[in-house]
Design a protein that fits this description.
The protein has 14 helices and 18 strands. The strands form 4 sheets. The protein has an 8-stranded parallel beta sheet. A 6-stranded antiparallel beta sheet has the order 11-12-13-18-15-16, with helices on one face. Strand 5, helix 7 and strand 6 form a beta-alpha-beta unit. It is globular and about 70 Å long. Bound molecules: alpha-D-galactopyranose (GLA). Alpha-D-galactopyranose binds next to helix 1.
Amino acid sequence: MRTSAVLALAFLACCPLAAVAQTALASSAYPHTLVQESTSPQRTPPMGWNSWNFFAGKVTDQDIRNAADQLVSSGMKDAGYIYVNIDDTWEGERDANGVLRANAKFPDMKALADYVHSKGLKLGIYSSPGPKTCAGFAGSLDHETQDAELYASWSIDYLKYDLCSFIPAVMMQQAPNDKAAQMRLMIAAYGKMDKALKATGRPVVYSLCQYGWDAVWEWGPGVGANLWRTTGDVEPNWQSFYSILNEQAGLAKYAGPGHWNDPDMLEVGNGKLTLAENRTHFSMWAMLAAPLLAGNDLLHMTPEVRAILTNRDVIAIDQDRLGLEATRAYSDGEVDVWTRHLSGGAMAIAILNAGSDRYSTHPFHLSLAKLGLHGPLKGKDLWSGKEVTLTDNMPLELASHDILLVRIAATR
Ligand code: GLA
């Protein structure tokens, strides 16, 4: 059930805000220089787990405790997965003073935070700048300071702030025919929560979720965002994450230490994804310097999925300290080649077969020249762990939806 995703799509249909994406406001009023890089609580892309992709509206306190336990026992925590994020549907009612209570599924949020922290992990939470969240629970409109203080009192470390009902309740209401004014209202709302969070003095990773509208990558850093969604909701199927991947081309220049493009959470281990698809999804999110927020059922994770999520070599690509996102170097038929520059002059090269057939009868030939490289180059295949030598025009055979991910130590 993804009713909120449907809701978000409905908003998209009703409000073509992209039309104002290029207004001068976005980049001039919120220059990147405003980003407080040194005070960012998260210099590399955040890693952890979020409840939405598997539990959606059913998530409970116990599920979050189980996720924390599993992150530790599976080795995921040691591999870098630190944030345990409660997504939508934790919210209850406000009391007479406007203080929000969690609902019956979360009887004691502070005790839950203490439990998660006792495992060496951090706790994330979710809200909306509108009166309601995407799933129809209480949002933060007109209660931003109160909510930020509440999160701080619970020792929350991460906030995902999801536009949702802010669109009809505020943007459409206050500026029905003025897209630029709607955009200003939205940006102001994100800025307001940023200020409220900062005023508490507690470092909080600030995650914007407004589906990648209005060139959020241009103004997100200016409202204190550590990450901003660049897309609608991911789903556990190849079409979904392959189209999201292609939408990321061109966004690399907006990512960097402390502020990241977010192509949405991981679906690794969900739905009917094949192991090749899980590998490709994980590899490409690492190439994109994306937040690595697993969204699978950690209690029933197969050893194969666990091995994918804890591949240290691939995680090291994601977490590379330079923070340079991959770019698509070229495509040849249904094969795409992406490269990412890494610290120390290293480079990651990803070659993926988006076709439905194995490339045995029509071999793909790798052009190192198109990557600005000269062969032969020795590297490591990050999925087999074996050394490989890349030569110019070498034929490569990739199974459908599979990937060859190679790290080369130095490009010359
Ligand atoms: C929106 C977001 C999702 C999720 C749901 C929760 O659809 O894009 O990631 O947070 O809301 O209702």
